[in-house]
Amino acid sequence: KRAKGQVLFDKVCEHLNLLEKDYFGLLFYENSDQKNWLDSSKEIKRQIRSLPWIFTFNVKFYPPDPSQLTEDITRYFLCLQLRQDIASGRLPCSFVTHALLGSYTLQAELGDHDPEEHRSDYISEFQFAPNQTPEMEEKVAELHKTHRGLTPAQADSQFLENAKRLSMYGVDLHHAKDSEGVDIMLGVCANGLLIYKDRLRINRFAWPKILKISYKRSNFYIKVRPAELEQFESTIGFKLPNHRAAKRLWKVCVEHHTFFR
To answer: Which of 15, 190, 235, 248 is close enough to 260 for a disulfide, judged by CB 3.0 to 4.6 Å?
Structure first.
């Protein structure tokens, strides 16, 4: 009961036969939408307090180029995470992309399309999109036929090649307000901090441009390098729902910066 997060995480990776474990982490939920990463350097019981000890294994850092991962199994777990992100609507896609990614999932899971075995309803047990239509399932089946001969590992690689181009790939979103009190979302990703309003990206700050990240009470601040013609760096502030949300965002930023820079 005095174990640190790292001990549990190592056990999980060992069980999964996973060597490239830096991309993953364990999550626990404070409530239905408030997720926290288990800190590997701290005792588990200090972080969980009175919550049940229930964790999910997740991708924490989405590699910008998944083809650089060395092991098929790492790519497979990344695919599983993305399938979940897409089916839950967390990672938005167009109809065409839903169908294409779905068809690679079928090839990976079922192998070549077999007219004998794969009758009309073989698709409905798979969830490709938050609101899956018969029209989409038809398109998925049609595309599945074109992937004949791809191994599961090749199908996964094709899936990732297409998924990594999605605009919200690997973006961790946090609710906030800007200095005028307007509702926005702050997205943390491999390249930096992104700002969204009504699901549209309105600004981005690449990591090299950000000099300092801090938080105080429920405020979150970034200090930005001066632009070409300016003399002084500027500090931009955002308001988060509460102190813990500000600290959580700060931590996610620091960890992403450390990992990708």
So the answer is: 190
